Structure formats: structure tokens, C-alpha cells
Amino acid sequence: KTPGFIFDLDGVIVDTAKYHYLAWKKLADELGIEFTKEDNERFKGVSRKRCLEILLEMGGIEASKEQFNAWLLEKNEDYLAYIETMDETEILPDVPKVLQYLRTNNIPMALGSASKNARPILEKVNLLSYFDTVVDGNEVSKAKPNPEVFLKASEKLGTKPEHCVVFEDALAGIEAANSAGMTSIGIGDAEILSNAKFNFIDFTEIDDDFLNTLLDGVGS
Ligand code: BG6
Ligand code: MG
């Protein structure tokens, strides 16, 4: 049986995690909340709404629904200003190499992202056509670490969870993949992502041999 490959977007395929951080940092500064890069780890893979809830909890701030939505909008507008001019140069190293290898081997591929901006970003960097299906923040109601996004992707690919491989840069994303019963691959700091089945700093460390091992081991 052919395995299905599922990719997170922000911080795995494109270097957008830094823009999410900058947009949250700006809002945090305005609200007088201290927000560090370490705090930002908890925001990775987590929906926009949940991120704002966490930020307000950090600052002990209560907000009306209107105010909450206004801050959500403000963060997203700042984020969109950062990604407006995005192009292929923001694809993370060797990602196209891996996508191309999998495509050549007719491996079904899905995007599994919490972002509501996933499609326009994939279009900007010209990678949308690699994916057989895109499951993003517009379709899921339960944020990672809930496995909903990956389970939906596996369903759409027609591949059982135990035959799926997930690439993730977020702690919450690795947890989601693991609880979906999928093979999790951590991209980034192995200390933070110690729950992943395999760890790599980035895609330059992923070679054809490793991919072949996955293709043989996960699909069978
Ligand atoms: C995830 C990011 O991919 O998408 C999170 O890791 C982000 O940091 C989430 O909050 C939601 O993104 P968006 O684009 O819908 O605000
Ligand atoms: Mg991510």
C-alpha cells in the first residue's frame, strides 16, 4: 500500500513562522504583554483564535467579543502585510527536492495546516500543484494537538492514518500526528520536538534513502 505524505505549511514548507511571531509580538507590545521567542513556540501550529486566547491569558486581559475580534483582525492584517510580497525565495531549503521526488514516485500528498491563509501562500510560492488535497484552518474546528486536521487529510487522500507520514515544526503538530497514529517527522529543534519519531533540522538532511525507507516501511 502506498503511504500518504502530509505536510504542515508554516515553518515546514515556507519560512512564515517568523512573520507570525512578528505580528503577535507587535500586538503583545501594544497590550503591554511580554512575548518572547520561547513563548512563540506555544503558538506554532495553533489556530489564530487560540493564539490570541493564550496571549490574553498571559497578560491577564479580558476582552469583549468585539475587542477580541478586532485584535484578531489586526494581527492578521499585520501578518498579511508581511506575506504580501512573498515569492519562491521563502520556500525552505530542499523542500522542492523532496516534493518532486515524491511526485515522481506518485506518492499522494496533502497539506495539513492550521492556517486560514494556507492556499494563497502556496499559490504565491508556486507549490499548490504538488498537493492532491489541502486541509487548512478553514476546514477544521479543533486546533492541533487535536488530530482532526491530519485525520481529515488522511481521509481525503484515501490513506489510513497508520500509513501516513507527517512533517511538522510545532510541538502541537507532532502531538497531533502521534495521536492520529501517524509517523511523525520533526523539522527543527530536536530538543523541542523530542516526541517525533524522526528528527531533522531541515529538508537538506532528508535524502532519497530516508524517503525510500519511509515508502517501504510505512506503506506496508
Ligand atoms: C499555523 C501557525 O500554521 O497557523 C500558527 O503555525 C498560526 O502560528 C496558525 O497561528 C493560524 O494561521 P493563520 O494564518 O490562520 O492566522
Ligand atoms: Mg508549522
UniProtKB/TrEMBL annotation:
Site residues, Important for catalytic activity and assists the phosphoryl transfer reaction to Asp8 by balancing charge and orienting the reacting groups: S113, K144
Chain positions recorded as substrate binding sites: D8, L9, D10, W24, K75, S113, A114, S115, K116, N117, K144
Binding residue positions for Mg(2+): D8, D10, E168, D169
EC supergroup of this enzyme: isomerase
EC number annotated for this UniProt entry: 5.4.2.6
Single Gene Ontology BP annotation: carbohydrate metabolic process
Names of required cofactors: Mg(2+)
Active site: D8, D10
Cofactor binding comment, as recorded: Binds 2 magnesium ions per subunit.
Keywords of the record: Carbohydrate metabolism, Isomerase, Magnesium, Metal-binding, Phosphoprotein
Catalytic reactions on record: beta-D-glucose 1-phosphate = beta-D-glucose 6-phosphate
InterPro entries attached to this UniProt entry: B-phosphoglucomutase_hydrolase, Beta-PGM, Beta-PGM-like, HAD-like_sf, HAD-SF_hydro_IA, HAD_sf, PGP-like_dom2
GO MF annotation list: beta-phosphoglucomutase activity; magnesium ion binding
Family classification: Belongs to the HAD-like hydrolase superfamily. CbbY/CbbZ/Gph/YieH family.
PANTHER family given in the database record: 6-PHOSPHOGLUCONATE PHOSPHATASE (PTHR46193), HEXITOL PHOSPHATASE B (PTHR46193:SF18)
Protein name per Swiss-Prot or TrEMBL: Beta-phosphoglucomutase
Species this protein is from: Ulvibacterium marinum
Classification lineage: Bacteria, Pseudomonadati, Bacteroidota, Flavobacteriia, Flavobacteriales
